Structures are given as structure tokens and as C-alpha cells.
Amino acid sequence: MADGELPDNPARPVAVDVAGWPPSLADFAEPARSAVPPEVWDFINGGSGTETTLTANRTALDRVAVLPRVLTGVDRPRTEASLLDRPQAMPVAVAPMAYQRLVHPDGEPALAAAAGAAGVPYVASTLSSTPIEEVAAAGDQVWFQLYWLRDRGMVADLLDRAQAAGCSALMVTVDVPVLGRRLRDVRNGFALPPHVTTANLPGGRDDLAHQGTPGVSAVPSGAVFAPALGWADLEWLRGRTPLPLLVKGVLDPRDAVRAAEIGVDAVVVSNHGGRQLDGAPATATVLPEVVAAVGNGCEVLLDSGVRGGVDVLRALALGAAGVLVGRPMLWALAAGGRAGAEAALALLAAELRDALALTGCADPAEARHLRTMTGS
Ligand SMILES: Cc1cc2nc3c(=O)[nH]c(=O)nc-3n(C[C@H](O)[C@H](O)[C@H](O)COP(=O)(O)O)c2cc1C
């Protein structure tokens, strides 16, 4: 779809009454904090190492000032946009996040259903605590996130299952050759409780993740991940699936260009929410260079630190086609299950609509032409 063109048949979100819920997406943090045990709060919210990158993600977004346009005659902006050539209610998807039953008993199906009702994609993690078939049945547009496993047969099996379940895109995560050192989990000796399992993997593959040891994080065990993923693997994957393919965890523009040359449909500029390399740059800092390098080669999405509609606007103005939202959606799930997640997404849409109105934009495509300034 050409830049600036609106989808013919935008996804229509279900109307949600946000009365009684926190006043902003970011404000779901507090009720979530009281809803989950402290070690689960740390698992969700922590980053790796000294959490420099975790903090930098927010600082960098906060430093992006967007120049509003005035006298544009826009009355009520539309939030609809296209991602992967498909109409969406807004340029947002729910990021893949492992083990959602940790924060609420309804887990992944509840969040997938909320995303479906809001008219945005839900990305189901390989490390889901609900099988992909159940998640796909609960949602509308469910994308499958693939972690590359040591056993290629298991990778092929997961791909087949995701496709048979009706997943409409595949997102391969490439920034976890090893797990980042998440010191909060190490200090807490964090392990999965018995009721939370790695439901997509054959029985027994996640046993280690349940074995709590003081001073050691058990999650995830890492025993099943293949560390040495290469470009040939991405080419294999491109040839193996007819689904739109996204590569998540790209920061260097050279990698983004190479992925586009292989024929991926989108790259996600992500540092895994500051959970992998501590010392990696904030995503808002590298996004413009990636967008410039990739050109029309593929779509560019951003995640890591998005906490509200103004952040979506900032990402669009920096050239992204859209964003993934991570932790805030777990906060909303923890705070109120499916209803909480629906309210959070309705608030995000309202925040984005206001941000568009305040910058004189009729829709997200126009926001991509806004100018930005980086200041303190
Ligand atoms: C609790 C948690 C679990 C995550 N699990 C996965 C995962 O299974 N696969 C993946 O690709 N990314 C995973 N991520 C990273 C997110 O997809 C996303 O990149 C990150 O959360 C975005 O940053 P934000 O939380 O600041 O929005 C996880 C993040 C969190 C917080």
C-alpha cells in the first residue's frame, strides 16, 4: 500500500468503556504491581545487567520532540493503518512475551482475545504457557514468534503447527543467541511455578525452568535454544513459509538491509526491552538510520519502551510503520485479565488519536511526515 493511502476495510475495534480503569496505558503498572508476586514483577519488568539499555529506551523516546503542524483542518483523526499490507485499527501489535499465565490465570488466550477485539495483531511467543492452537483460536490476527531451537525438526514442527492453527505471520527473534544476564531473576532465584509450562514444546523440555536454586535464574532454561543462528537459516525460513516474515531484534542498519534482501516483510528494531545486551543502543536512537538504510526494502517496526500514544507518534515520526507494545500489556493483563487488556488498548488508541489531533495529522501515515527534534 502506498504511503499515505488508507486501508479500504480498516479493522474495527469493539467499543470499550474505559471508566474505572487507570487513566493511561502507563498507569496500569501500579495495579499490576500489587496483583503479582514481587519476583514475577521483577521477571516482567527487569532488564539485563545494570539495566542501562532498559533505562535508555525510555530516555531516548522522551528526548524525541515532535513538531506539530497547525491549521491542517483535521477534525477527528483516524488511527487506522496498515501493517504487513493488512488493515489494522492502529499501527500497534502486542509484542511476543513468554509465560503469560505467570501474571493472570487466563494468560495468553485472554490477551490474544483483547488484541483481536481491539483490531490489532497479537504475537504469540514460542515460550507461551498456552499451546499455539488455543491462542490462535482465542485471537483474530495471531502472529507466531519463533525462537530457533537446536532441533530443526522441532522448528519445522512449530512452523507447521502455527500455520495450521491459522497464524497470519511469522516473527523470528534473532537477538537471543544466549539469554541476557537478568540479575533481578538471578538474585531472586526465579523459577517457573508448576502451573506455568512451556506449552508449545514437547513434554520435559522445560523441566529446568521449574527448578529454583538460590542465586540462579532458571528461566528460561536455554537448553533448547540454538545459539548459532545464521543468515542461511533465515533464507531457509524464508523459503519454508509462505507467511509474511518479520525479523525481530535488529539494531544495525546493515543487518536490516541484509534481512530485506533475503525477502523478509518487516524488521523489528528491538533490544528486547533491554533484556538482552545491556549496553545496546536505545531503539529510538537507531531507528532513523535503519529506516534510511532499508528504504522501501521492507517495513520497519520498533519496540522497547513504548508506553503510550505519544510514543507511537514518536516512532511514526522517526519513520517506523508501527510499534510493538510489551510490558504494559502484561500489566493490563495482570490488573484485569481480558477486560483490563481491552481497556488498555482502547486507552492507547485514544492516546494516539489525541496525539495525531495535536500534530494536525489525519492518520498515522501522515504522522510519518512529521519532523522531529532531539533535545533534552
Ligand atoms: C516478560 C517478557 C517476556 C518476553 N518474552 C519474549 C519472547 O518470548 N519472545 C520474544 O521475541 N520477545 C520476548 N520479550 C521481548 C518483547 O517481545 C519486546 O521486545 C519487549 O518487551 C519490548 O519492550 P517493552 O516491554 O519495553 O515494550 C519479552 C519481554 C518481556 C517483558
Automatic annotation (TrEMBL):
UniProt binding sites for glyoxylate = 147, 182, 272, 275
Domain named FMN hydroxy acid dehydrogenase: residues? 17-376
Q: Which PROSITE patterns match?
A: FMN_HYDROXY_ACID_DH_1, FMN_HYDROXY_ACID_DH_2
Fetch the InterPro entries from UniProt. Aldolase_TIM (IPR013785), Alpha-hydoxy_acid_DH_FMN (IPR012133), FMN-dep_DH (IPR000262), FMN_HAD (IPR037396), FMN_hydac_DH_AS (IPR008259)
| Entry cofactors | FMN
One GO molecular function term? FMN binding
Keyword 4Fe-4S part of the UniProt annotation: no
Residues holding FMN: 96-98, 125, 145, 173, 248, 270, 303-307, 326-327
Q: Which domain of life is it from?
A: Bacteria
According to its UniProt record, what is one Pfam family this protein matches?
FMN_dh
Active site (record annotation): 272
Record key words, sorted: Flavoprotein, FMN, Oxidoreductase
The similarity comment for this entry is: Belongs to the FMN-dependent alpha-hydroxy acid dehydrogenase family.
Name by which UniProt lists this protein: Alpha-hydroxy-acid oxidizing enzyme
Q: Which organism is it from?
A: Micromonospora globispora
